[in-house]
Amino acid sequence: MPSQTFYLLGEDVSTAKTIEVNPSQSLEDLKLLIAAHFAITDPNGIGFLGKDAVLTETSEVTTAPGPVPITIDGHAVRDPPSPRKLPFVGNFFEVYPDHLGNHQRLFDQYGPVIKTDNMGRITYQTNDPAIAAIALAESDFFTKKINEAHPLYALKNASAGVFLGDTDTEEWRVAHKFLPPALGPKAVRHYAPTMQKTVEDAFKVLDHLDEQGEAWNVYYYMLKLGSQAVGKLTLGLDFQHFTSPSAPVHEMVHSIAEMLSLNKKVTSKGDWYNKLPFGDPKRLRDLKARIEEMVGESIEVASRGGVEDLPLQDAALKADNMVDYAIRATDNKGQKLPQSSLVWALVVATGAGFTTTSSLLSWLIYGLCTYEGMQDRLLQELIDHGFDENTQITAELTDKLDFLDKYIKETQRRHNPSFQPGRTAKCDLILPGGYKLPKDAVIIPALHHIHNNPEIWDNPFRFNPDRWDTEEVKNRHKAAYIPFATGQRMCIGFNFALQEIKVFLPKLVYRYKFTREGDGPIEYDPMFQLIRPNNLYVRAERRVKWPPRSDQSTTA
Ligand code: HEM
To answer: Which positions does UniProt annotate for heme binding (predicted)?
Structure first.
């Protein structure tokens, strides 16, 4: 077979490779062949340069005088740009404290892939959905491998939960077979009554705060509410967060939160520190043991009921909660989730579940008080669907609430709580646009910046739920909106989260009118894993009257 030599434009000609090419193959097949040889992640962007023009036929490529330069999306290959570094701190002060605002500025200045060095930790970020989709697909190019550069590295070693681990492990595969069915769309539907009871239990506290004329910190109460629901439905535990306005946050919730921050502290120093018999490392070991003990108790209580084993899907539809599910669910070989994976899979699902939903709930309340007309439109939609305080919310009802759906989507676009799902390059590779990434580099699809990228979204900084009806948004790139990430390592709890929100928000909006207390800037904590409003205070006033149905007011 004839052969041709090729090299990547931008690299030295001496790197050229000789490749056998069948002259009768299509140009598309030739691009696939070249992509495989040069680890080019998207073959569609490959171009072949002739002496005077771009070569568009395989026969032209094979007969051109070699070596033939390869372009990617019309570019030579190049290192991702990076701001100028300062000694020791690198780009730290280019990025922090306002990493959301600063990354936006860096994307505007340098383009869709940027490299930053924050005190020695090198990461790559992208706001391009096409690159995000490539990174998040588990493939020959990328995987979730949590190495020193990964944003979850500090959490990986100390807690070791399978969902904080690498994809390429037997433990993750087993947990990933067992747990997602319990959080599938059908399975979470039967959790709706428990979700509703949870928010209704919070009413007496919110009513009391209203009677006292008190404003409250939204994140604090949403943390209580979000974790109350997740606690019941993952661990079967009642955290008693709404027995009174000052009811303490349950030991499980603050233990998980404290464990997350201790992990960061302990693993940011050498391994010797971890072995100290006192201080933070000891506290961390004690906490881990206590958490295991608490989850172990939940498992024991659930087992004591003498429950029957069931195939995965049936168990998902019948279980009272995820512990109950996990001890019953049996795969087609009659095997169960091993006890060794069970405890930490449940701890991580609980932690991932409440930190995220409580942040999103907080942003949803922020939107009610900030964006003109939202509260009225949400309320009107409820009234028009015959909603009242006795309504039992079901998925059939929430499926009809179009504006609610658009409002949630727009909030997750504009104020997404999670922002850094990192993926690791398995080899030296070339991204669309010609950006080179070395093996083991961690790239973060920057969710906030993808969701607010002006190349994709018209007027992205405007909060506009109606954009979700437009053709432009309906035809967007599949990774232009990925609040729960995408690919095999995406969120397994998204059905749960969305259903919970669709039960909580209507109940809250029907009962209360929310107004913001104070009008200073809202701050977020740049060192927290999630974006949440730290200093948002609201008044929730009980409604005493509701608008008429739209059809009645039109008739009138
Ligand atoms: C608004 C709510 C939520 C948001 C925005 C969210 C977002 C995410 C994102 C972006 C990831 C991917 C992380 C990565 O790729 O590195 C993820 C993973 C995960 N989420 Fe969620 N999540 C939410 C709610 C939940 C809930 C309610 C649960 C459980 C009940 C849950 C359990 C998990 C688990 C176990 C993973 C790890 C999956 C894996 O590594 O294979 N999440 N979530």
So the answer is: 491
